[in-house]
Amino acid sequence: MEIVLASKVLRANAEVADENRARLEALGLVTLNLMSSPGSGKTSLLERTAEALGGEMAIGVVEGDIQTTRDAERIERAGLACVQIQTEGACHLSAPMVRDALGRLDLEKLALLFIENVGNLVCPAAFDLGETHRVVLASVPEGDDKPAKYPEIFLDAAAFVVNKTDLVPHTDCDIERLKADALSINPELWVCALSCRTGENLDAWLDWVRGLVRTGNAQG
Amino acid sequence: MEIVLASKVLRANAEVADENRARLEALGLVTLNLMSSPGSGKTSLLERTAEALGGEMAIGVVEGDIQTTRDAERIERAGLACVQIQTEGACHLSAPMVRDALGRLDLEKLALLFIENVGNLVCPAAFDLGETHRVVLASVPEGDDKPAKYPEIFLDAAAFVVNKTDLVPHTDCDIERLKADALSINPELWVCALSCRTGENLDAWLDWVRGLVRTGNAQG
Question: Do B123 and A121 touch (CB under 8 A)?
Fold first, then answer.
């Protein structure tokens, strides 16, 4: 009974996700669904990306939170167009929530759209939002066992960003093990270790994003 | 439809949770449900607690993970009796899963039982397991906005443990703000900031646990 209903919910979600995807692709708009545990640095990565790329391309953000508008306020202070979704308890974003948010953005003017999912390394994996790519973040102080313990979310991701490399000297996290475990789950992952705090290796992330937008707009 | 089913699942869970609670209380067994994001340090706190209290009292652990037996292996290396639950994708433990695990432990011999929930700051909050108390962990590098953004899990908790205080000098986390926000959600919380890595303030946690076990056994 539970399983039947779950499939029904996921099927309904998938239909709306396909509509979202068609709409975004028709505009040539690259959409990245950012997923991680609470506090891995999704909003910090968006702030850094806004600072660096905001002058080059028009970026929008759909900000998902269970409660509060704190992240949306941070994104707006960083100068990006932002729509907040408050899920009111739900542990992940769904395609219908994103469809409603898309209606409140001036999509024609954008080249790149980020969707910041609810902080949760489990549930968001099951819900396609219509994004071009999924990006999973984890951070050094969380430890190097996260891909092995939460493999599902890595399966359909295009990129794995390891944040907070500045904390490596103060933890036992082995970044090479983290990378190897993630790649054993999904060998297609583009993996990038960086620090939003110090800016270390942020250029690699920015270049990856630039490359996607170039290709996306050429297709659109 | 979704909501009806969710209530039905939660009602069925609550019934089994009440059975678990009655069984554990009859034995005078203090049971703590540890909940946090992935990587906040639930297993590390258990390892430290095992080292310090393992000689004083018999401690058991029910270890919840989506995949892998890594945490259970760490707990067994620390010398505690441990039963592993693999949720196979489920994002939280449920009372029936815990009931099955209790059947595999020699409960009569234990004075203290930990249940380590799946790493998730959202979903476990909705599922009573029959525990005596809930303990929420967060760690310094996750940032000081977690109580405000994920309030639900703090509402019914007895204690809030802030781990990784050794990383305070390397982050922007304001521990006083973290505590104040958690207490504004639940003024009854016992709050303790410590470091499993350095052992800083671990004694406060151990004394709190000792106090619970003393009272629990007097009642049982």
Answer: no
Q: Report d(CA A5, CA A49) in Å as an integer.
A: 39
How many Cα atoms are found within 13 Å in the side-chain-facing hemisphere of A95? 23
Segment A94-112, tens digit of pLDDT? 999 999 999 999 999 999 9
Cβ–Cβ gap A70/B39 under 8 Å = no
The pLDDT, as a whole number, for residue A89 is: 84
B121, A119: Cβ pair inside 8 Å?
yes
The two tokens of residue A153 are: 């979310």
pTM of the model: 0.93
Determine the average pLDDT of the residues in B187-193: 98
What span, in angstroms and rounded, lies between the C-alpha atoms of A120 and B45? 21
Q: Would you state the pLDDT for residue B30?
A: 97
The average pLDDT across B69-97 equals 93
Is A89 touching B (CB cutoff 8 A)?
yes
Candidates A42, A36, A99; CA nearest to A74 is A42
Residue A186, both tokens: 């999904």
pLDDT tens string B18-40: 999 999 999 999 999 999 999 99
Average pLDDT over residues B95-99: 97
Instruction: Answer positive or negative: Cα dihedral of B35, B39, B40, B44.
Output: positive
Is A201 buried (19+), middle (13-18) or exposed (0-12) by CB count in 10 A?
A: middle
The Cα A15–Cα B174 span in angstroms is: 43
Chain A partners of B71 at a C-beta cutoff of 8 Å? 149
User: Contact, A110 vs A56, CB < 8 A?
Assistant: no
In this predicted structure, which of A23-32, A63-72, B176-185 has the lowest mean pLDDT?
A63-72
Structure tokens at A159: 């990129």
Q: Which two tokens stand for residue B106?
A: 């020699």
Partners of residue A37 in chain B, C-beta under 8 Å: 37-39, 119, 121, 142
Domains of chain B are 2-219 (3.40.50.300)
**Half-sphere exposure at residue A190, Cβ-oriented, CA atoms within 13 angstroms:** 13
